[in-house]
């Protein structure tokens, strides 16, 4: 990938050229109005940007008079961005869920999309702000928290150092002064926030957060050869295995999300699909969520 430093371009110019390239890759065409509508620039500036891009990457696009647009050539090779399926689909999902506005992305077009939604988590934005502030300032925070292990909410002091997402819920990773250990607290279960004070521990003390576990997975052995091949593609496996790096603190959530928290023999191979081949280092601790 070329950079603005290599090409001597200003950041704003490079952004617009990246936009041109992104549109060409995902939509197959781009025109002046696309640049004008997205960046609020003049017709003259839009024409200049397209001509500049054409000079830098003449093999990437050609003008189609009938379409009144530049269209992608078969020799297209990106210079300003790296196409990513993961990024595109993540943006598409965010659009479908309403957490991202259409004018904040460059390449969605009119692609119909639907996602399997889950109930929105009732996270108080002020509580979240206080947590983020405490994490950044390395402060302890007094919270009123409803644990599933207790019948009523309790006030406690926590020392948060990170937040994490388990695929369904947002957690704050923190040292709990009540239990004298690092735990995960579901943010939506924090009812209120009280006082702040300086923290007495640091993130490096949270060994389960600092340590990484490697999970090696493979297709269920009772699948057919064809089914195994498609599972290998689904999970990006090489030679029948894939490795997943996960923080030890989030191991429980990862195993649960992948369906690896149960004995694979209790489910049909077509439902289970993957099995855990190994875990390094092996698990010898307990779950620490609250």
Automatic annotation (TrEMBL):
Q: Which domain of life is it from?
A: Bacteria
Looking at the record, the residues that make up the DNA-binding transcriptional repressor CapW C-terminal dimerisation domain are 212-278
Which InterPro entries does the record associate with it? CapW-like (IPR016634), CapW_CTD (IPR059020), CBASS_pafABC_assoc_protein (IPR051534), WHD_CapW (IPR059019), WYL_dom (IPR026881)
Pfam families per the record?
BrxR_CTD, WHD_BrxR, WYL
- WYL domain mapped to chain residues: 127-192
- Give the DNA-binding transcriptional repressor CapW winged helix-turn-helix domain ranges: 13-93
Enumerate the PANTHER family for this protein: PROTEIN PAFB, PTHR34580
Q: What is this protein called?
A: Predicted transcriptional regulator
